[in-house]
Amino acid sequence: MRSLIIAYPEHDMAHKIRLAMQSRGLPVQGIALSGSQVLQIASLCEDGGVIVCPFRFPDLSSNEIMHLLPDTFDMLVLVTARQLSSVYGTGIYTLAQPFTASDVVDAAAGLLRDRHPTGLAQPTETVFYHRNRLGPAPDDKAAHGRSNNEQQIIALAKELLMNRKHMSEPEAHRFLQKRSMESGIRIVELAQRLLQ
Fold first, then answer.
1. Domain 3-137 has CATH 1.25.40.390
2. Alpha helices (runs of H) in the chain, residue ranges in sequence order
3. Handedness of CA 30, 20, 10, 62 (dihedral sign)
4. Which of 30, 94, 122, 146 stands 20 to 30 A from 74 (CA)?
């Protein structure tokens, strides 16, 4: 059975998150206060699990930790809007501030239940889940199903970036996503502007 690892540099916050998870009956394997402790606890989880953590610890970033873990693990990274574009990789999910304790518990429960939860947007390599005061993130439309026309527009914009800026497909996607979030414009509208 997959387990949860609560990883947070501040012990009080890690303990609060753990209590919230346990109150919903989620299996918490342990609390880690550093990236190296995450790796130690993860080595005890035979079936893998979900790590709930911030973007960076003093010793390792969430990206570095995920790179060192087996593919049986997923990661729910609690980020600020600024950090969102810096978190990437297969199996990494993000929850951007502001969020509630209930949002964190629901997202972790969804990851434990289903490695690719429904209702979460899924760009090329990274899945993002977040709420903010402005409503759904521009890329969250993918979760609700973009039209074929919108998907084609985005694909053409990525292709344009790949040819003109010599980006890989994931780099082009992250570029569009970051610019979309910075400008507050839906990613499909940004893609249309690039193609004009």
1. no
2. 11-23, 35-42, 62-68, 101-113, 141-144, 148-164, 169-183, 187-195
3. positive
4. 146
Report residues of the chain scoring pLDDT below 50.
116-144
* Architecture label for domain 146-195: Orthogonal Bundle (1.10)
Q: Residue 159: which residues within 8 A CB-CB, separation 6 or more?
A: 172
Length of the chain: 196
* Whether the bond into 170 is cis, omega within 30 of 0: no
pLDDT at 115: 60
Cα dihedral 139, 141, 147, 148, rounded to 10, equals 30
Amino acid at 126: T
Token pair, residue 93, equals 């999910």
pLDDT value, residue 145 = 54
Q: Which of 42, 33, 50, 32 is nearest to 129 (CA)?
A: 50
* Domain boundaries, given as residue ranges, for the chain: 3-137, 146-195
Tally Cβ neighbours within 10 Å of residue 136: 14
Q: DSSP secondary-structure letter at 87?
A: -
